[in-house]
Automatic annotation (TrEMBL):
Protein name: Phenylalanine--tRNA ligase alpha subunit
Residues of the Aminoacyl-transfer RNA synthetases class-II family profile domain: 111-320
Location relative to the cell: Cytoplasm
Molecular function as annotated in GO: ATP binding; catalytic activity, acting on a protein; magnesium ion binding; phenylalanine-tRNA ligase activity; transferase activity; tRNA binding
Residues where Mg(2+) binds: E256
GO biological process terms, semicolon-separated: phenylalanyl-tRNA aminoacylation
EC nos: 6.1.1.20
Name of encoding gene: pheS
Superkingdom per UniProt: Bacteria
């Protein structure tokens, strides 16, 4: 019996040594230590032994079983270590490879233009005012000298929710609200950037949603020359110190007199080219002196106070500044287009 157990031990240790996977090791465990294994069979036959042999053989069986079990555990640990090493080797990182560049975002060109315009006018003493995009008819039209059924309302085909509630067609309502808040006391010196909405068919130069920046200055003794000086300073800072402006008579219901403001063409330097339609000038914004009726409706004494107002399209400024030929580029989220405006 003793020789048989020693032989089983040597066979088991040999198979443990030759096992190359955890599965093969498990098969050795079951083969020798399982319920149907030879060592278990020996333990079951212990009752047939004499009282003198039983403790001696029992001790030998325990030694053989513990030896086989310990060898299996050690081999299993080695196999696990080899698996980890193989996995680490397969997942190793070559630190000599060049790194992948991180894609860094940038401001949208319209946001950048708005901030540039704000900086220019803040430097001239203006502050930035905001207002609701869903506006009531009174502030969008009536407070700006556009009463019900006024023909000029047809120029701004609007999105109405009800007869008195609409998406604002301009940022001028912010001017009316701000003047009301001042309760007839000047000065009021603000610019109003924001989204506006009109029922236009989308094409290369029109959009149903676009951005505007309007400005307002109300105080005693404000003159047309002040308006020209402010706009000239803005144009030189935004487009370049060599650019000039000119004022042409126009009509807006909320200003009197009203003007269209042109800037000298930066391509031909005023000589005439395809971009400026051979005139040397490009229209950039509308402006004028605040209509006395608008001042009165906002609580200002028009015999004491005067003011000027102006409005410009952000997309138009961006298109002129960056030579962009289609307004739809700003809203299609084409990364090839937007990536051009990243600042190094």
């Amino acid at each position: 019996m003793r020789e048989q157990l020693e032989k089983l031990k040597l066979e088991a240790l040999s198979q443990i040594k030759n096992a190359s996977t955890k599965k093969e090791l498990q098969e050795v465990r079951i083969s020798y230590l399982g319920k149907k294994g030879p060592i278990t069979e020996v333990l079951r036959g212990m009752g047939k032994l004499s009282a003198e042999e039983r403790p001696l053989i029992g001790q030998v069986v325990n030694v053989v079983r513990d030896t086989i079990k310990e060898e299996i555990e050690q081999k299993e640990q080695k196999l696990e270590e080899l698996e980890v090493e193989a996995k680490l080797a397969s997942e190793s990182i070559d630190v000599t490879l060049p790194g992948r560049p991180i894609q860094i975002g940038a401001k949208h060109p319209l946001t950048a233009v708005i901030e540039e315009v704000e900086d220019a006018f803040i430097g001239l003493g203006f502050s930035v005012a905001q207002g609701p995009e869903v506006e009531i008819d009174y502030y969008n039209f009536e407070a700006l000298n556009l009463p019900k059924n006024h023909p000029a309302r047809d120029m701004q085909d609007s999105f109405y929710f009800t007869e008195e509630l609409l998406l604002r067609t301009q940022t001028s309502p912010v001017q009316a609200r701000t003047m009301e808040q001042h309760q007839g006391k000047g000065p009021v010196k603000i610019i109003c950037p924001g989204k506006v909405f009109r029922r236009d068919d989308d094409d290369a130069t029109h959009s149903h949603q676009f951005m505007q920046i309007e400005g307002l200055f109300v105080d005693e003794n404000v003159r047309m020359s002040d308006l020209k000086g402010v706009l000239d300073a803005f144009v030189k800072q935004f487009f370049g110190a060599d650019r000039e402006i000119r004022l042409r008579p126009s009509f807006f219901p909320f200003t009197e007199p009203s003007v269209e403001v042109d800037v000298s063409c930066g391509i031909c330097k005023g000589q005439g080219c395809r971009i400026c339609k051979h005139t040397g000038w490009i229209e950039v914004l509308g402006a004028g002196m605040v209509h006395p009726r608008v001042l009165e409706m906002s609580g200002f004494d028009s015999s004491k106070y005067s003011g000027f107002a102006f409005g410009m399209g952000v997309e138009r400024l961006a298109m002129l500044k960056h030579d962009i030929d289609d307004i739809r580029h700003f809203y299609t989220n084409d990364m090839r287009f937007l990536a051009q405006f990243k600042r190094v």
